[in-house]
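Students often ask why we bother encoding 3D structure as a string. The short answer is that it lets us treat folding as translation between two languages. Here is a chain of 330 residues written in the first language.
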Amino acid sequence: MGTSQVTAPLCAPSPVPGDTTPSSGVIHINSRHAAGFTVIGNHLAQHRGLSLTAIGLAAHIQSLPAGARIGIKHLAERFPESETRIAAALRELEAHGYLHRSRVRLADGRIVTRTVSYNQPGTVAPITPTPRPQARHSKPAAPLPTPPTPAPPPTPVEAPQPPAPQRTPTPAPEPTPPPSYVSVPPLTAPRTPPPPLPQPYAPTEELRRTAAALLADLRRHAPGLTLSEGDVAALTPGVAAWLERDAHPDTIRHTLTTDLPVPLKHPAKLLRHRITTLLPPPLPGTAGLTPPRRKVVATPLQNCDTCDRAFRAADPGHCRDCRADLRTAA
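And here it is in the second language, the structure alphabet:
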């Protein structure tokens, strides 16, 4: 009657499903959560296109309650990562459909950022009405007492009147359709075409060959000015115009390769602009470089009215000696 029953303790659960333990790799020790847990899909935890920062940030956001603040500055205060890494991780989650951020204007005029987190990308978010500020309703006033209604006076007996003539109802005016607005494209100023490339007055084969060789040789002095055969053929007449105006090849090379922008995206367009706008004028001849001579007009000779001596003067009269004698005599 007093037989004691001995109950053996249950065996501990195997750390992995099955009877064998893997020789390498991770070994899971799983314990069932009763509270305080978040379900995260393997499509996020094992995502091959997301960084570890983005996966961890997505797990943190999904574990937060609704309405929690997840701004970049707030997350940077919470975690050791910088604002730059957190912003990059948020962009990754937004690109892969785990996060959606939008700017929403509230009824009171404020603009806020609304962030929606998806534990499964592609899920349609429920439409939630925009919160509006509730107006304060005043307490309704107590109704006033209704005064007693007086008795109506006796209705006098009237003689029957002939029926009034019937009027033809006037048709109601048709509603005016709302004006149609035609979207007019914004007016833009017409673009001024670039000036034409200068051309030589007397093109020769020697000028063309020298100009083409100078353009093809520019890449030795400035690697960014590497031109194609088509660009060299198109710019050759402009350089030939420089050579025709007695511009030295070294002068042309210095003008085209000095102060180049960095980075140089369109070398042919830059060379065309410089060849066109910096074209020197033709050299003047030797006659044009001689200063003009002053024209000297000789004073005519006159004969003195007293002594008949010749002297130079613009008008006839007396010579200098005779004018002195006349002043002395006076």
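Translate back mentally: The CA atoms of residues 9 and 15 lie 18 Å apart. Keep this in mind for the problem set.
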